[in-house]
Design a protein that fits this description.
- The structure holds 2 protein chains of 2 kinds.
- By secondary structure, chain A is mostly helical.
- Chain A is built from 4 helices and 2 strands; from the N terminus they run αααββα.
- Chain A has a two-stranded antiparallel ribbon with strand order 1-2.
- In chain A, a hairpin with a 3-residue loop joins β1 and β2.
- In chain A, α1 runs antiparallel to α2, α1 packs antiparallel against α4 and α2 packs antiparallel against α3.
- Chain A starts with 18 loop residues before the first helix and ends with a helix.
- Chain B has 2 domains: 38 residues; 174 residues, Glutaredoxin (3-Layer(aba) Sandwich).
- A 5-stranded mixed sheet of chain B has the order 1-3-2-4-5, sandwiched between helices.
- In chain B, α3 packs across α7.
- The longest helix of chain B has 38 residues.
- The chains are: A mainly alpha, B alpha+beta.
- At the A-B interface, α1 and α2 of A face α1 of B.
Chain lengths: 152, 218
């Protein structure tokens, strides 16, 4: 993060060109979170270990970015980015495991559900890790745009 | 201020969509389970299963049961007292749903005890000691043998029966029926063929009451 970057003071919504991309990032996080909860709690798919790590990175984004939106505080981007980066990395790794590029032996998924299971799909076609990776990528782009707009 | 409302409104919309999704999904799942129970009616009760209570009772509770399952353990006295308090109008049919590792062995031991007429004694001891033998990551179902060593079994015969083909066949049939009826958690209750979807003690009692009333007007 650039130290010279002007920081929107708490509660300042006047110069908030970053707001729209920040909103998009938050919306993606919100949809991903409710989607994950729906799959896990309603449809009864047990999250595997890698899914849990992605959840750990995704769920707080709703609150961190939500607070940023609420107070028009661009600093929330700074606090969200590490979570997004970690989540993106795990999602990418999970997708490699799912596609069989990386053997699952590297991460002991233990009992419960397997991370490489073909059951890890929505509607039988889209693998859940791909959805997760898409969400993290979208959030990353949106946050990057928010940061770029805040500095100009 | 306007933006805060956008955030709140979006959050509310997503929560609403989630709740609606839950309603649609559970409704569809309930229909599927009901359908499965109707089309596989013969899979509910098999002649090989243990029956508690009056065999000719009007109301049949079918319980898909896992000896390692804590909730099954908690429901055992509840269901037993429901049958006992019904004056022969309610019976319990025990089906097996061995969803935990080691449960299959436990079922085989219980069934071996049943061949010698000691099923309910063995079952009660097994459930009482469940916390000791049924740890989900390190189950020790063979401990059940020592738990039931003094109920009066011919142990050598029981051990041979437990590994025999009859009990194996019974367990396979129960697992096949469990899958046909879409039972994926235990205890899975059916009362006169109606699946208990909204799980709970009060709900089970209400469903039994409802079936008792139906049978009284028949």
């Amino acid at each position: 993060m650039n130290e010279e970057q002007p920081i929107a003071p708490h509660g300042d919504g006047r110069n908030a060109a970053f707001w729209t991309p920040l909103f998009l990032a938050w919306l993606l996080a919100l949809l991903a979170t409710s989607g994950a909860l729906f799959l896990g709690e309603v449809m009864g798919k047990t999250p595997c270990v890698l899914c849990w790590y992605q959840r750990i990175a995704m769920f707080p984004l709703v609150l961190v970015l939500g607070m940023g939106l609420f107070t028009s505080d661009v600093r929330s981007v700074r606090y969200a980015l590490p979570l997004v980066g970690v989540g993106w990395g795990i999602a990418a790794y999970h997708l490699l495991v799912f596609w069989g590029v990386v053997s699952e032996g590297l991460v002991p998924c233990g009992k419960g559900s397997s991370c490489a299971d073909a059951d890890v799909q929505v509607a039988g076609v889209v693998p859940i890790p791909l959805l997760s990776l898409t969400a993290f990528s979208g959030i990353l782009v949106a946050l990057w745009m928010a940061r770029a707009r805040a500095t100009t | 201020m306007n933006r805060k409302w956008i955030v709140l409104g979006t959050a509310a919309a997503v929560v609403l969509a989630f709740v609606a999704g839950v309603a649609v999904f559970t409704n569809r799942a309930t229909q599927e389970v009901k359908q499965a129970a109707q089309t596989n009616n013969e899979a509910l009760v098999r002649p090989h299963s243990p029956v508690f209570g009056n065999p000719a009772a009007k109301v049949t509770i079918v319980e898909f049961f896992d000896p390692s399952c804590e909730t099954c353990r908690a429901f055992y006295p509840i269901v037993k007292s429901m049958v006992n308090a019904s004056f022969g109008q309610v019976r319990l049919v025990v089906r097996y749903a061995p969803l935990h590792p080691g449960s299959d062995t436990a079922v085989k031991i219980l069934e071996a005890a049943r061949l010698q007429g000691k099923y309910w004694e063995a079952l009660e001891r097994t459930l009482a000691a469940q916390p000791q033998w049924a740890s989900h990551d390190r189950p020790q179902p063979d401990m059940i043998w020592s738990l039931i060593s003094d109920v009066g079994l011919d142990m050598a015969r029981a051990r041979a029966d437990a590994d025999g083909p009859t009990i194996d066949q019974l367990l396979r049939q129960d697992i096949a029926d469990m899958q046909a009826l879409k039972v994926d958690r235990t205890p899975g209750f059916f009362v006169n063929g109606t699946p208990l979807r909204d799980f709970g003690e009060a709900q089970l009692k209400a469903l039994v009451e409802q079936e008792l009333k139906k049978s009284a007007t028949r």
